[in-house]
Specification:
- There is one protein chain.
- This protein is of the alpha+beta class.
- It has two domains: 2-48, no CATH class; 62-215, Glucose Permease (Domain IIA) (Distorted Sandwich), CATH 2.70.70.
- Helix content is 20%, strand content 34%.
- It has helices spanning 2-5, 13-30, 32-48, 131-134, and strands spanning 62-64, 69-78, 89-97, 104-106, 111-119, 137-143, 149-156, 163-165, 172-173, 178-182, 186-192, 197-198, 205-206, 212-215.
- An eight-stranded antiparallel β-sheet has the order 9-5-6-7-11-3-2-13, with no helix packed on it. A three-stranded antiparallel β-sheet has the order 1-14-12, with no helix packed on it. A three-stranded antiparallel β-sheet has the order 4-10-8, with no helix packed on it.
């Protein structure tokens, strides 16, 4: 129960929480109402950077969600050209994270990272389809033991200003492992082969590392 009310904090959150707490204390000295607002914002900062444990199915015939949030779009598209995947068509599931979702991203299936590519860009609303092409993003290409290739794309949103990637090329990951975090509202796109059967639908709320998206 304690971990539910006070979940662990992601390492990126300590500095932001300290800043929010200091600002709150200064606001209390100026005005109690402003101090109360600052206190609420400090609580929000804590919960934004929460990093609860997740319990994946540990079955690599399934793909689990890479992010908490709502599936904003499911479509068939060419793979990201930045990862040299544009010559093949993939299913793409986009998960939009609002400012109240947990923003720690996780790997949908066990595999090895083949390539990571960071691309600067704009900061338009991440719920829009064009965010996949226009926004700042971090692209991760990886493959599993069966030779299937996947791409996870961390996309900055309207007020997101930093994408943190915590993995590196050549690293082996297990299903549900953490890959990074995006600060303050964003989106994650997952690209996978068309021979996977979708188990999720647009508008569905999903949980990173646990919700099932597709099955081979």
């Amino acid at each position: 129960m304690f971990d539910i009310i006070f979940p662990p904090l992601h390492k990126e959150g300590y500095r932001m929480l300290a800043i929010a707490a200091i600002v709150t204390m200064l606001l209390i000295l100026v005005n109690k109402i402003l101090g109360a607002i600052g206190f609420i914002l400090t609580i929000w900062v804590y919960y934004f950077f929460r990093d609860p444990e997740r319990y994946p199915i540990n079955d690599d015939t399934f793909l689990v969600s890479p992010a908490d949030g709502v599936i904003s779009l499911i479509t068939n598209v060419r793979g990201p050209k930045e990862l040299n995947m544009e010559n093949k068509e993939y299913q793409r599931v986009s998960v939009f994270m609002n400012v109240f979702n947990c923003h720690v991203n996780r790997v949908p299936i066990s595999g090895k990272i083949d390539e990571i590519f960071y691309k600067p860009g704009k900061f338009i609303d991440a719920s829009l389809d064009k965010a996949s092409e226009d926004n700042e993003r971090n692209l991760i290409k990886y493959s599993n033991s069966s030779g299937k290739t996947f791409a996870i794309v961390q996309i900055a949103g309207l007020i997101a200003r930093r994408i943190i990637c915590e993995v590196k090329q050549g690293q082996n990951l297990n299903q549900g492992d953490r890959i990074g975090i995006i600060r303050f509202g964003s989106r994650v796109d997952l690209y996978f082969d068309n021979d996977y059967k979708l188990l999720a639908k647009q508008g569905q709320t999903v949980v990173a590392g646990e919700s099932l998206l597709a099955k081979i």
